[in-house]
Write a structure and sequence with these properties.
Helix 10 runs antiparallel to helix 13. This protein has one domain: Up-down Bundle (Heme Oxygenase, Chain A). Helix content is 64%, strand content 0%. The chain is mainly alpha-helical. The longest helix is centred in the last third of the chain and has 30 residues. The chain is built from 14 helices and no strands. The protein binds fe (ii) ion. Fe (ii) ion (FE2) binds next to helix 13. The site of fe (ii) ion has 5 residues, from helix 13.
């Protein structure tokens, strides 16, 4: 599997996602208030990145990350391979989604925290706010799935506990590379967040297909998965845009790569722990 999104995949994802989302009721889709902080960034096969000074860094970092994902496919795709093999029963699937809900639910806040360090840079500030706004409500889509698929009460979803006791991120500790990156380039320290979303579209494509074909769930409760086959194409692009514009020095690029490598290891570790916790149940 390739982890770079092609123009064809982007077109198909947009068309199919729009169609599938129409099956979801009641869901108010608001056309107003959408401001693209970078002109054209939501266009299919946008070429704006290519003109930016550090695009080569984006290209090589995507290649590096593709290699990490390929080597760790079992652990970086949100347990998608296990769902595709129907290795998780309904109870395990429910517990995994309730665990995932904790992260999805706090994600907009984790994004918007970056805004205070980027107030001086209008376009980065606006990208952060737009990104946080687009993530807002996704946890309710995930809650809708859990409620309708497994009969859980919404308040119990909101009150769910993670399968993994504590994470590096929850403890509020930052690695040396991350804290240097934050000090030396708050733009890049934010960019790492959306850049890491690049493994979400392939993961949710696999999971959405498996939930339909293996578990028998219908379109009208799968909005959370369908939406993520599409929206994160653009969130990755937010990160890539900032990298292509602000990864000015070798040192910043190295700090970014170290921090990316650390985040990927945390993701792998967290998914592994969650999986083994599920298998022990
Ligand atoms: Fe996203």
């Amino acid at each position: 599997m390739s982890y770079n999104i092609t123009e064809q995949e982007e077109r198909i994802a947009r068309e199919q996602t729009q169609k599938k989302l129409e099956a979801i009721v009641p869901r108010e889709l608001l056309p107003n208030g959408s401001y693209a902080p970078v002109p054209g960034i939501f266009d299919i096969a946008w070429k704006g990145l290519l003109e930016l000074p550090y695009f080569d860094f984006v290209r090589s970092t995507r290649e590096f990350d593709n290699t990490v994902i390929k080597e760790n496919e079992e652990w970086m795709l949100r347990l998608a391979p296990m769902v595709a093999r129907k290795e998780l029963d309904h109870e395990q699937l429910k517990l995994f989604e309730m665990h995932s809900f904790r992260w999805v639910d706090t994600y907009p806040v984790a994004i918007v925290e970056n805004v205070f360090e980027n107030l001086h840079n209008r376009e980065v500030r606006d990208l952060i706010i737009r990104h946080a706004g687009e993530e807002n409500g996704h946890s309710e889509l995930e809650a809708d799935f859990i409620i309708q698929a497994f009969g859980v009460n919404r308040l119990d979803v909101w009150d769910s506990k993670p399968l993994v006791k504590s994470t590096y991120l929850e403890e509020g500790k930052e690695s040396d590379a991350m804290s240097s990156l934050r000090k030396e380039s708050p733009e890049l320290s934010y960019a790492l967040v959306p850049f890491c979303e690049r493994c979400v579209p392939p993961a949710t494509r696999i999971i959405g297909k498996a939930l339909r074909e293996q578990y028998g769930f219908k379109d009208d409760i799968l909005g959370f998965f369908d939406l993520h086959t599409y929206i994160d194409i653009y969130h990755e692009r937010f990160g890539a845009y900032i990298m292509a514009k602000y990864a000015r020095t070798r040192r910043l690029q190295e700090l970014f790569l170290t921090a990316l490598d650390e985040r990927r290891k945390i993701l792998i570790g967290t998914n592994k722990q969650a999986y083994y916790a599920l298998k022990a149940k």
